[in-house]
Specification:
The chain is built from six helices and no strands. By secondary structure, the chain is an all-alpha fold. The protein is 63% helix and 0% strand.
Length: 103
């Protein structure tokens, strides 16, 4: 067995898909968790998930992917759920994104 193997790769695709759907539904429910704050804390947000499904082969365009993740068109999500980012949030996001470079 390869000692560098990631145990995550042994997760069944159906289980991984179910967990992903649960994560997306949780983020839809917790619309109080702003994307800018998710980015500042973890270096990813709902829009990243949309990009990742496109990277994985989702056939739609960027807007289609975001609508799938948000559960509505992204313009509607922004208008009804997104608040303006503060300078502090933007700075924290930039610092967090810099940590992603190791991926």
């Amino acid at each position: 067995m390869n000692s560098n193997a990631d145990p995550l790769d042994s997760l069944d695709d159906a289980q991984a898909a179910a967990a992903f759907r649960r994560l997306v539904r949780h983020l839809r429910h917790r619309d109080d968790a702003q994307n800018i704050d998710l980015m500042g804390l973890s270096g990813f947000c709902r829009n990243c998930l949309a990009d990742w499904i496109r990277d994985a082969g989702f056939p739609g365009d960027k807007e289609d992917a975001r609508a799938l993740i948000h559960g509505m068109p992204s313009a509607e999500w922004k208008a009804t759920r997104q608040t303006p980012a503060t300078e502090a949030q933007l700075a924290r996001m930039q610092a967090s994104i810099a940590k992603n470079a190791q991926e």
